[in-house]
Amino acid sequence: MITKFVRELNPRKMFLATTTLLGSGFVLVNMAIAVILGYFISQFTISSLTQVVRMCGTILFLLASITMIILGVFIIIGGLYSYRWGPPEGIISLGVLLGSFYLLCLGIGSALFQMSLGVVFWILSAVFFMLGTAAYTSTSPDFKLTGSIMGITGGILLATAILSHQIFEPVFAGWGIPFIGPFMSINILEGIVMVVGPFAILANLILSRRREGSTSHVFFPVVTLLYGIGMLVGSLILTFDLWDLLWKSPWLPPLHGVPNWVIGATIFWSVSLINLAIGGIFLIVSSCLEFAFIVKEASVAGEISQTLPYGSVRRRSYEDRSVPQR
Question: Would you list the domain boundaries of the chain?
Fold first, then answer.
């Protein structure tokens, strides 16, 4: 029964469903966050320089949420484009640039609240990702290699920043819950993904030059599997934490005494995280399917290598003997 179900799964349809769930999840979650950040901005008073700086930092967090809403729309469009016509390289590059701008807004916004080494790494990682994407989209192999190396540098910096600094903690001060990473995955796995992902791109670039493309594809399911597990676990943890705050809201801060529409936005946020958790499940299943197809292709290639090369070698040696030597 399970084997029949796996065989009937279409990888393209699974990829379309996964990107639709992830994209819609990013859109819905960040819509709720944007509403709550709008409430925070309305509570500031221009009475001191500190208040003005904190308000500007919160506005940058709001801009980051709007950027993620746009990125979620691009993820959905990219999935549809890939289902109809193939991998959308232009949309992927634009999505990486949007993600880098999102990180840059979070880093600068957090710096306006409190400067630390983790915040500096956060800003530098966004810059390296932007420059690396611009170099990788070039047609020159040397520029692609340079872009991959810059992406690895940015990934290491971002992983360090994610593990050492909770980026949402300054703007959500007083909530008292451990927030997940910027891309809605638990911090440890998201940090690993940010390092392994650029290395996978570099390995794909090097192995593609050596015409070993089938081998290079192994790295990407590993990245998506780790990210899917992190998104599933992280979304569920944050959902339960938000439900705990909502349960305590009638008598305890931070939701005690806030307008009903802020409570509604928080409820919407928690429900939207369940959408992301389902997207994480689909991402895990898609990764496992990709592993299965890679193993299947490798076994087929092994069978072919056991039959074709022998005949081709014999034919080549016969042709070499038939050529008169000078």
Answer: 2-302
